[in-house]
Design a protein that fits this description.
The complex is a heterodimer of chains A (about 110) and B (about 110).
Chain A: E1 4-7, E2 10-14, E3 19-25, E4 32-38, E5 45-51, E6 56-59, E7 62-67, E8 72-77, E9 86-94, E10 100-103, E11 107-112
Chain B: E1 4-7, E2 10-13, E3 19-25, E4 31-37, E5 43-49, E6 56-57, E7 64-67, E8 73-78, E9 87-94, E10 101-102, E11 106-110
Parallel strand pairs in B: 2-11
Antiparallel strand pairs in B: 1-3, 3-8, 4-5, 4-9, 5-6, 7-8, 9-10, 9-11
Classes of the chains: A mainly beta (about 110), B mainly beta (about 110).
Chain lengths: ~110, ~110
């Protein structure tokens, strides 16, 4: 099956700085790469996603980049705010398998005011 | 829309007891999933369904069973609970197999 690795496991940044979280995947058949934000006591919430036919996608302060050759994708958050503090998960999905999702182990992001 | 709801929110079981977790979605989604979340391990897929009447095994299916008799509901059963099944369980659904919507979770403790 697919193996998704995520780094770092914890990340602290000053408010206003940028944060970058990186993930790698093992199965070249994966074609969909979502990022989720999970706040304490809640379920994960999709914040941005990218499909394998696109190299970069941006939505206001967040962006995701994908390098299919190297099998890695990254989440970039600019101008961080305290409300960005949460756990972030990356995932990879393989088509024609019921679109099974394989998740990274999460990054706990703390934005220091 | 209520989105994805899960029942119950919390539960404590003794080893060997059985229970059923209910997931319901009102978005007419085809795909539904059950995950467990353990500290430091992310979310791991237990079982999933690609439509009413279908189910399939995920990464960690042992000790669990599922049923999807109605499109809007996906049930997760534990026949004989074990302490290793102490976890937070999340249900998710998606219309196309891409954008997943998650429920609020069920925190299960097995003593």
């Amino acid at each position: 099956g697919e193996n998704v690795e995520q780094h770092p496991s914890t990340l602290s940044v000053q408010e206003g700085d940028s944060a970058v979280i990186k993930c790698t995947y093992s199965d070249s058949a994966s074609n969909y790469f979502p990022w989720y934000k999970q706040e304490l006591g809640k379920g994960p919430q999709l914040i941005i996603d990218i499909r394998s036919n696109v190299g970069e996608k941006k939505d206001q302060r967040i962006a995701v980049t994908l390098n299919k050759t190297a099998k890695h994708f990254s989440l970039h958050i600019t101008e961080t705010q305290p409300e960005d503090s949460a756990v972030y998960f990356c995932a990879a999905s393989i088509p024609n398998t019921g679109n099974q999702f394989y998740f990274g182990t999460g990054t706990s992001l703390t934005v220091i005011p | 829309n209520a989105g994805v709801t899960q029942t119950p929110k919390f539960r404590v079981l003794k080893t060997g007891q059985s229970m059923t977790l209910l997931c319901a979605q009102d978005m007419n989604h085809e795909y539904m999933y059950w995950y467990r979340q353990d500290p430091g391990m992310g979310l791991r897929l237990i079982h999933y369904s690609v439509g009413e009447g279908t189910t399939a095994k995920g990464e960690v299916p042992d000790g669990y069973n599922v049923s999807r008799l109605k499109k809007q509901n996906f049930l997760l059963g534990l026949e004989s609970a074990a302490p290793s099944q102490t976890s937070v369980y999340f249900c998710a659904s998606t219309r196309t197999g891409y954008e997943q919507y998650f429920g609020p979770g069920t925190r299960l403790t097995v003593t």
